[in-house]
Write a structure and sequence with these properties.
6 helices, globular, Helix Hairpins, mainly alpha
């Protein structure tokens, strides 16, 4: 499985099979999954705590650090997929709708190279 050959549905099925084999559906409530997702996101952030911007970018060139970050990112994504499974959300539809909202909120011609309207660094 690689990103170029794997569908979101296949990843959801992978997570679903893992959960089903352990009879964990009873614990995978939206409340529990949202909390687990936040905890895993915090564990991901720990790898970058106190690093400079440059040091955080260098993580990609350190195999051991990159592997640890990858594991935490995988945990975040697995919980997100489990949440989609529990709520029967179609992620493609949900993401597409959100991107439409984001495009309206952040027009490229107004936000290119900056993060907000008050940002005057590119003015």
């Amino acid at each position: 499985m690689t990103d170029h050959r794997t569908t979101v549905a296949e990843l959801r099925d992978l997570v679903r099979a893992f959960v089903d084999a352990r009879d964990w559906q009873q614990f995978h409530t939206p409340k529990n999954l949202s909390m687990a997702l936040a905890i895993e996101a915090a564990e991901l952030m720990e790898h970058f705590q106190w690093l400079s911007v440059e040091q955080s970018q260098e993580v990609a060139s350190h195999q051991e650090k990159l592997a640890a970050v990858g594991e935490e990112l995988a945990d975040v994504l697995c919980y997100a997929l489990a949440m989609a499974n529990a709520l029967e959300l179609d992620l493609t539809t949900t993401i597409q709708a959100k991107m439409v909202k984001n495009q309206a909120k952040y027009p490229a011609d107004q936000f290119r190279g900056r993060y907000g309207p008050e940002d005057t660094t590119n003015a």
